[in-house]
Amino acid sequence: MSSTEVKNFTKKLISWQRSQGRHHLPWQINRTAYRVWLSEVMLQQTQVATVIERYQAFLKRFPSVSDLAAANIDDVLAEWSGMGYYTRARNLHRCAQEVVNQFDGVFPSDPKLLETLPGIGRSTAAAIAVFAYGESAAILDGNVKRVLARVWGVQEDLSKTAAVKTLWLHAESLLPKAPEDLVSYTQGLMDFGATLCTQNKPACIDGSGVICPFEKDCQAKKLSLIDKIPLKVKKVKVTSVDINWWILIHQGKILLEKRPHQGIWAGLWSFPEKLDLPLSAKKIELPTIKHILTHRRLSIRPVQVVVSKKLSNLDPQLEWIDFSELKKLGLPTPVKSFLKNSNLVRDDV
Hints:
7-stranded mixed β-sheet; 40% helix; Nucleoside Triphosphate Pyrophosphohydrolase; 7 strands
């Protein structure tokens, strides 16, 4: 597209955002670097509706970067529990500690410095710099890649480094020159990709009657390639995994395992999957649980084990936890659901 059309894209997007974009999301109010950073990390893999609810609760628990840095990682994981992709929560905690230790509790305004912090990539760094400090920086998350690829008819595989590098240069060329337009433009990219130019059934083909401001310019629309852009790369193979959960209860406590810092549910508390059980233990098989992760399809077989006394000489990662303390722990979604909905045999009631 010509430079005139590029200029019109930026101008049209700013105008559209100011009249039809989102203006009342919780993180748009009192835009501090901490609040912007938190929202950006939450939104990476979680729907806006879920983030709106959880964002407020997280802020109440950890109102500042210093509060988050000083917290125990188990408390952070517990507050994050249910949103998945727990690496984000661990990176939040590490990042908060580095901001406190290296930058005296103040996020830097330079996007390059922000990128050095745990869990902050180039696009997230740019969003913090723009929204919190008014710096000029380009974002390029999944939504923005889709918008630019469709409007300019980019048919390359955007999982390839060369294609993404070109798109970054393009994103930078579109930045508005006037500092007062930076927030509206950046927010406009986010809003447009999230509400109109969506992955499935974008406004231009869903029959809702909503008019896309780029309908006359969009190359994907002109070429009837809306459903082909961005190019869909080969899907990651989903592996089926069988798991046993050994459920042991004794005197109002349940045996849980602190999972390693790598792999499924890293750093969270779950039921032990391997355990040396006494021969006299009575086993009660419970209904199988199906749970889908991004790359794995889990088939979980819970087995409650009735023991007359606590097991001794347990591995360090195993611990007897009082039922009243479970809410304070970071638990994977299927574990929380199981504890809430199963009729476990309790020996203290």
